[in-house]
Write a structure and sequence with these properties.
Chain lengths: 484, 129
C-alpha cells in the first residue's frame, strides 16, 4: 500500500477497515514531505509533531466510532492564508513572518470535525496576489511534474503538494483563479464553489467580494467529499449562504444525458495554445458521446473581465491590508519617528513589490475624484458580466472551456514576460466576478508532458451539475485508459 | 491590440501582437499615459496607502500606475448608463445577531502576537506631544 498515492476516499476506507491507521498515514505523508519538499518547496510550515498528535487522537476516535466519514484520519495541507490556531500563518509575506493565529478558520474547523489531520501550511503568492507562487517571501514553489516550471498560483503550494503526494488533499483560496489555475498546471482537480458556500471566517482577506475557499484533490470524488465537508452556513461570515444542497457526493453519477453544454467562442480565440485547445475540445467530445449536447456561443465581455477584476480586487485589497500596521501582530520596523512613520516604514519593509503595487492602485481608484471613474465603473461592468453569464445559463447547463491559455510557464518567465501571467487569468477571473462555481479537471498533457486543465463553469449553486459532468468525464477517461 | 496589460513596468499587448505598427502605438500610448500620474498624485496615494517610497520607487510607481490605469481605461468603452453597480452578486442584507459575547478571554493569546506589549496592552509610539 503506497499511502502517498492514495485518494482521500481510498485512504479513509483503508483506515476504517483497519488496513492502516491515521498515524501510519500521517507518518507516510510526512516521510514523503521529508523526501520531496526540498525539491518543490510546497510548504512554508510543516507541523510534524502536531500532525502526529492529531493523528493519534483521530485514530482513537475512529476506533471509538466517533469519526466514520470519508475524510477521517486523512492528512490535509492548508494554504498559508487560512488561519490555524497555534500554527504559524504567514500569507507567504514578511509582514506576517511571526503571526500565530489565536483561532482556526471555520473551513478548517469543519475539516477537523470530520477527522482531518492538518500537516502544515502551503506556500502561495504573497497575500494571494500572483499567478505563479513566485511572489512568496519564502521562495517559489516548483511544479512536481517538471521542476523547471511554476506550479501556478496563488495556491501553488497546495496544488503542488497534492501532485507530489506531500498531502492526500489540500485546501486553497480562489479570488481570480487561484485554485483552478494551479490545479490545471499541476494536473490535479481544483474547485471554486459558489460565493458564500464556504465560510471566509479565518481566511485572511484579499478581495472579500471575490474570495472563496475550495478543495484541491487527486480526483473528482475527493473534490465532492471535501467540498461537502467544507461547506456550511456560518454566522461569523455575513456573506455566508445557507444552503440545503451541500450533499455534493450524491452528484457523483456517470450521467450527462441531455446536459446542455456551451463553449464560448471567446475562450477559444487568439492567445490560446493549440495543444490546450485540442485537449479541451476532445474533452467536450467525450461528454458529447455520453449524451450531452455541445455547442459554441458568444459569451461576450470576456476582455473586460481582467480590467474590472484588477480595479475591484486592488480596491478591496487596499482596504483589507490596512490592518497590517505593526501594532497588533506581525512585523514592526526597528527604527522610526512617530506613529505614522512607524506605520509607513513597517508596511513598506513588510510588503513585497506586487502587494505594494496593488495597494497603491487600490488606494487610487478609491480616492475622491477617481472613485466614480474607476471603482464604480468596474462595479457596473461586473453587473454587465454577471448579466452575460445569466444569458448563457438560460441556454446552457454549464460552460466548458480551458482553465488557462497555456500549460505551466517556466520559473522566471512570467516576470520577464508578464503577458502569460496576466493572460493566464483570462478564463478564470470572470467566474469570481459573477460569484459562480468553477472546477478544473485534468484533460491531458502537452507534448512536453505538462498537464492541461479542463474548466467547467456552472450557474450559482449548480456545483452538483459540475461535479456530475466532471465525474462522468473522469470515469470515461479512466475506462478508456484501462482498455488501451 | 485589444488588451493592454501591465506588470512590473513593462507594457505588453496581451494578444501576443507581433505587428510592429501596433508595438509602436503601444509604446507611444505608454509614454503619454506615464505623464498622467504626477509627483503630487503619487505623494497623495502614498499617504492613503501608508507606504513610504524611495525616490526610485516613486518613479517606478508613477509609470506602473499610469500604465495600469491606461489598461483599466478599457472599461470606458462600455456604455454603463443606467447600469446599477454590483458589489455583491447576491442581494446581501445586513446580518444581525444578538449582542451577546460568545468568544472567551483570549487576551493573552492575542497580545502574544504584538510586536510590543506592556501590562496587558499594546504599546504604540507616542501619539500626543
Amino acid at each position: 500500500m503506497n499511502i502517498a498515492n492514495m485518494t482521500a476516499t481510498q485512504l479513509a476506507a483503508a483506515i476504517r477497515a483497519g488496513e492502516t491507521t491515521a498515524v501510519e498515514a500521517a507518518e507516510a505523508v510526512l516521510a514523503q514531505i521529508e523526501k520531496e519538499d526540498k525539491k518543490y518547496n510546497c510548504y512554508v510550515t510543516v507541523d510534524r509533531n502536531g500532525a502526529l498528535a492529531q493523528a493519534k487522537a483521530v485514530q482513537e476516535k475512529i476506533e471509538a466510532g466517533e469519526f466514520s466519514g470519508p475524510l477521517a484520519g486523512v492528512p490535509v495541507a492548508v494554504k498559508d492564508n487560512i488561519c490555524t490556531e497555534g500554527l504559524l500563518t504567514t500569507c507567504s509575506s514578511k509582514i506576517l513572518h511571526n503571526f500565530v493565529p489565536a483561532y482556526t478558520a471555520e473551513a478548517v474547523k469543519n475539516l477537523q470535525r470530520a477527522g482531518a489531520v492538518i500537516l502544515g501550511k502551503t506556500n502561495m503568492d504573497e497575500f494571494a496576489m500572483g499567478s505563479t507562487t513566485e511572489t512568496s517571501a519564502y521562495g517559489p514553489t516548483r511544479n512536481p511534474r517538471n521542476t523547471a516550471h511554476v506550479p501556478g498560483g496563488s495556491s501553488g503550494g497546495s496544488a503542488a503538494a497534492v501532485a507530489a503526494g506531500e498531502c492526500i488533499y489540500a485546501i486553497g483560496s480562489d479570488t481570480g483563479g487561484s485554485i483552478r489555475q494551479p490545479a490545471s498546471y499541476c494536473g490535479v482537480v481544483g474547485m471554486k464553489p459558489t460565493y458564500g458556500t464556504v465560510s471566509r471566517y479565518g481566511l485572511i482577506a484579499y478581495g472579500s467580494s471575490l474570495d472563496q475557499i475550495g478543495p484541491l484533490t487527486k480526483d473528482v470524488e475527493d473534490c465532492a467529499a471535501v467540498l461537502e465537508t467544507l461547506a456550511s452556513h456560518d454566522p461569523k461570515d455575513s456573506t455566508s449562504v445557507s444552503r440545503a444542497d451541500t450533499d455534493f457526493t450524491t452528484a457523483l453519477t456517470r450521467d450527462v444525458e441531455g446536459l446542455r453544454i456551451g463553449i464560448p467562442n471567446d475562450y477559444l480565440g487568439e492567445g490560446l495554445d493549440g495543444e490546450v485547445r485540442t485537449a479541451v475540445l476532445q474533452a467536450a467530445e467525450v461528454l458529447e458521446k455520453k449524451g450531452a449536447s455541445v455547442e459554441r456561443f458568444d459569451l461576450s465581455l470576456v476582455e473586460y473581465a481582467i480590467p474590472a477584476y484588477y480595479t475591484i480586487a486592488a480596491a478591496e485589497a487596499s482596504s483589507n491590508l490596512e490592518r497590517f500596521d505593526g501594532i497588533r501582530y506581525g512585523y514592526r520596523t526597528e527604527a522610526f519617528e512617530g506613529l505614522h512613520g512607524m506605520y509607513k516604514k513597517s508596511r513598506s519593509e513588510g510588503f513585497g513589490e506586487e502587494v505594494k503595487r496593488r495597494i497603491m492602485l487600490g488606494s487610487f481608484v478609491l480616492s475622491s475624484g477617481y472613485y466614480d471613474a474607476y471603482y464604480l465603473k468596474a462595479l457596473k461592468v461586473k453587473a454587465l458580466i454577471k448579466k452575460a453569464f445569466d444569458a448563457a445559463f438560460a441556454k446552457y447547463d454549464l460552460i466548458l472551456g480551458p482553465v488557462a491559455p497555456t500549460t505551466a510557464p517556466e520559473l522566471g518567465e512570467s516576470l520577464a514576460d508578464p503577458i502569460r501571467m496576466y493572460l493566464g487569468d483570462i478564463y478564470t477571473i470572470a467566474v469570481n466576478l459573477a460569484g459562480l462555481p468553477g472546477i478544473s479537471v485534468p484533460c491531458g498533457e502537452d507534448s512536453r508532458g505538462l498537464p492541461i486543465g479542463l474548466q467547467l463553469i456552472g450557474d450559482c449553486f449548480q456545483e452538483k451539475t459540475l461535479l456530475r459532468a466532471a465525474y462522468t468525464y473522469e470515469q470515461e477517461v479512466r475506462e478508456h485508459e484501462q482498455t488501451v | 491590440m485589444k488588451i493592454k496589460i501591465f506588470n512590473r513596468g513593462i507594457c505588453v499587448c496581451a494578444l501576443l501582437d507581433t505587428n510592429p505598427v501596433m508595438r509602436k502605438k503601444c509604446a507611444e500610448m505608454e509614454k503619454n499615459m506615464a505623464n498622467m500620474i504626477n509627483d503630487e498624485t503619487i505623494e497623495y496615494v502614498g499617504i492613503l496607502a501608508k507606504l513610504e517610497l524611495s525616490a526610485e520607487e516613486k518613479e517606478q510607481a508613477k509609470s506602473d500606475m499610469g500604465r495600469m490605469l491606461d489598461y483599466i481605461d478599457k472599461l470606458g468603452e462600455l456604455d454603463t448608463t443606467d447600469v446599477e453597480p454590483v458589489s455583491h452578486v447576491f442581494p446581501v442584507e445586513n446580518v444581525f445577531r444578538e449582542d451577546v459575547v460568545i468568544n472567551g478571554d483570549e487576551r493573552e493569546r492575542l497580545l502574544s502576537n504584538a510586536p510590543q506589549e506592556k501590562d496587558g496592552m499594546f504599546v504604540v509610539p507616542r501619539t500626543f506631544e
